[in-house]
Amino acid sequence: MSPIVEEDRQILDSSSDAFVGMDAQGLITEWNRAAETMFGWDRSEALGQRVSDTIVPAGHRRAHENGFRHYLSTGKARSIGEPCLVSAVRRDGSEFPVELTRWTLERSGVTQFYSFIRDVTERERRKQLLEKQAYYDDLTGLPNRRLLLARLETLLVRVDGHSAAVEEGLATLFVDLDHFKRINDSLGHSAGDRVLVLVSERLRSAVRPADIVGRLSGDEFLVLCPGVTTFDDACSIADRIFAAIAPAVDLGTDSVFLTASIGVALASQDDDAETLLGAADNAMYHAKVDGRGHSVLFDPEMRREISSRLRLENELRVALAERQLRVYYQPIVSADGAGVVAAEALLRWEHPERGLLLPAEFIPVAEESGLIVSIGQWVFEEVCRHARDWIAAVRSDVQLYLSVNLSARQLAQADIVTMVQRTLAEAALDASRVQFGFEVTESVVMRDPVATADVLRQLRSLGAHLSIDDFGTGYSSLAYLKNLPVDTLKIDQSFIAKVAESAVDFSIVKAITDLARALSLTVVAEGVETQPQAEAVQQAGVDLIQGFLYWRPQPLDALIRRFGGSPSSPTTGGEARGHTR
Ligand code: C2E
Ligand code: CA
Ligand code: CA
Known about the structure:
- With 581 residues, the protein is of the alpha/beta class.
- It is 44% helix and 24% strand.
- The longest helix is centred in the middle third of the chain and has 22 residues, at 300-321.
- It is elongated and about 120 Å long.
- The structure holds ligand C2E and calcium ion (2 copies).
- One calcium ion (CA) binds next to strand 20.
- One calcium ion binds next to strand 20.
């Protein structure tokens, strides 16, 4: 019956691939040794059985038989002569992947169908492993950034001009753990790893099975929720995530509590994967800036804001390179009327089109982009240059204390102390004439009191005075305050504004002043604009006053003139520009 002759059969038996023949009824006509080992049926058992019952898994039988019938009636078949990957089943019922090469042979009017079948279990396993390494995060087993972007891309794909993600909805949640670095730094990387694995499990449990949870990098996770069309629904998912990660994490001897900041963006027309991810990332950034541990939505207004912020950021880079930035000085007077004792350096931007800009218009962007670090360094260098000019121009018995603002980003900079030290050394200023100080806002100090205190201590060892700025708004813990290496408290302007009319505000100013007294700190009232305010803060007992009532911020040359000196150096810019803001 079979056109295979005995000599051929010997060759086929030596093959490591299974060789299976079948007639037009679908019954087995050939079965070599390799087929016996691969499938577990002896040749004598297999011959005459239906192929589909013997080696095709139950779930594939219908398709197999339909395909075969289709071939018999039309002569057309999938992959004749071409290897294809299918599933096969062994005698014990276990399924495994095989590569199948089929062809047909006609001899003396009888058509026979043959297949070489190769077990590719090992090859497929290796392939899957490689895929897993390329697309999944090692630590948590979650999809990695690459796979997340690919999934997003698929969800956003436009079919006939319609994107399912846009029509049926897709919410993207960017989840960033708060203060994760602290866990890593204080408890070690293996504790950090355990936290990340746990968070990945908690995230998975907080969302539906159809949602995709992946890890972007470090402590950043992304959750994709198809079918979500409203911010309300997206926010309730965010709430579930907050709740899921809130329970204490037990790390053996320590246990920690986790919070996260979540940025939410909904897919909209024309989004591609990168844009949508960027939108969620940005919303997350806003959530962090607003105070960690909550979620922020990304709306079209924010999109506009981002593009104008980007423009401003670029202009600011140019401003730094092309010397459009200026340092102004606002004198600080002693409350007993003895005159100017200090001045605060305040940054201005002489914008080529928009005129003189105040810090409020560009410092936030400088902070966010990190530009504040190089800007801050420039400010300090400029103040040192100005100090030299001031010393040269003003009578030698006049002393001045110059105070420079430091931002959170600058303080976090590992080399801030080295920068200050180097700049001071290069300036080689006469310390009997000019002294330096730095101002750090209370909220920045309280964000990380331990680390900040450490940096402040080092700055102080360089001879700098230290002030806590905007005091009264940052929820200082008195315990920390006691141990902070600072010299001065600057009472926040918001309390000064109503100090003359409001008994409550007066009591606050008085209480802060008494507190400072007890801790041997100097107190500055900032933002004094009227005579009644000046009298009230004097009555409260402050040491120094800074405010428009006495002086506005002004360029160095104006300051020098008021001290009776004459501006000599060209860097101080000749005649004062009319406006002082
Ligand atoms: P700040 O450190 O609290 O500085 C005091 C601000 O109060 C200054 O605003 C000053 O012009 C203003 N001021 C002083 N007296 C009065 C008054 O009587 N009434 C009113 N309404 N305002 C008064 P400015 O110059 O606009 O600076 C705003 C903020 O920008 C500063 O607040 C500081 O946080 C930041 N900043 C300024 N220069 C720098 C800098 O070089 N580096 C950094 N990182 N931040 C800076
Ligand atoms: Ca200040
Ligand atoms: Ca202030």
